[in-house]
Write a structure and sequence with these properties.
With about 240 residues, the protein is of the alpha/beta class. It contains nine helices and eleven strands. α4 links the parallel β4 and β5. α1 packs parallel to α4. The chain is globular and about 55 Å long. The chain starts with 5 loop residues before the first strand and ends with a strand. S-adenosylmethionine binds next to α1.
Length: about 240
């Protein structure tokens, strides 16, 4: 699943960056993913949490579930949860949570291993930019969703990418940049509309003082001042019409 693309390049600032495919990147990132200082994930948990506050699905699917944050959240709230991800090492981290064992599968977002019309909520957080064909992914979301079910997606905002934000992480002093696809929010909405989904809600989320301490702990207070006015994430909610 995915290529193991890996090559070094020298940046304009004379530093070497390793470029990796989405699956190779997450394979390397997996063991430290949850313990890394990551303001973007902190913002996602806060902003997506606000959007989903009123939604209590009986069955929830997390596509590209990673280490299982949202699965655990909804399981604790009483939902029957299922997840999939294309990276075995990310799923290995999720299976350290015993209640998630047997509920997650290794699968590509374009071909999810769930029955038709099964979920009241399908969630896909900070992952859409890694998928090659979002048309196929949204068709899978629509297929697996019940009529009247919700599909919630968050991802890095195109404006954040334009202003220099990267999809990267550091490991052992080396920066890794993860291969991804740049898309506008309009392109995302078009893929959802083509799959027959109706838009319900759209939000852009910026860093606030809630995330400041994470920037501070990483010694990046100045970066916080620069990025706080730029939308860092978009969150969209659609409904599968009845
Ligand atoms: C930034 S992580 C987000 C994980 C999780 N949703 C979260 O909020 O922490 C992106 C995830 O997308 C997964 N991924 C990348 N390409 C994928 C694909 N084509 N199909 C399924 N999962 C994929 C990666 O393995 C990784 O777990």
């Amino acid at each position: 699943m995915g290529t193991a693309l890996r090559h070094f390049e020298k940046t304009a600032f004379g530093k070497f960056v390793m470029y990796v495919s989405a699956i190779e990147g997450h394979r390397l990132w997996a063991s430290v993913y949850d313990s890394s200082l990551n303001p973007l994930l902190a913002l996602e948990r806060r902003a997506m949490g606000d959007v989903l506050k009123g939604i209590q699905p009986s069955t929830m699917i997390d596509v590209a579930c990673g280490t299982g944050h949202w699965l655990l959240h909804f399981q604790d709230a009483g939902s029957d949860v299922f997840g999939c991800d294309a990276c075995k090492e990310m799923l290995n981290e999720a299976t350290k949570i015993s209640s998630l064992r047997g509920r997650i599968a290794l699968a590509d977002a374009e071909d999810i291993p769930f029955r038709d019309s099964i979920a009241d909520l399908i969630l896909c957080s900070v992952s859409l930019g890694y998928f090659r064909n979002i048309g196929g992914v949204f068709r899978e979301f629509a297929r697996a969703s019940k009529a009247g079910g919700f599909i919630a997606v968050s991802d890095l905002h195109p404006d954040a990418l334009l202003s220099g934000w990267t999809r990267s992480f550091k490991l052992g002093g080396q920066r890794y940049d993860i291969e991804h696809h740049r898309r506008t929010v309009q392109e995302v909405n078009r893929a959802a509309a083509d799959a027959g989904l109706s838009p319900k809600f759209h939000r852009e989320a910026c860093f606030t003082t809630s995330e400041f301490s994470l920037f501070q702990r990483a010694g990046k207070q100045d970066l916080f001042r620069t990025v706080k006015s730029i939308p860092a994430l978009f969150i969209c909610l659609w409904e599968k019409p009845c």
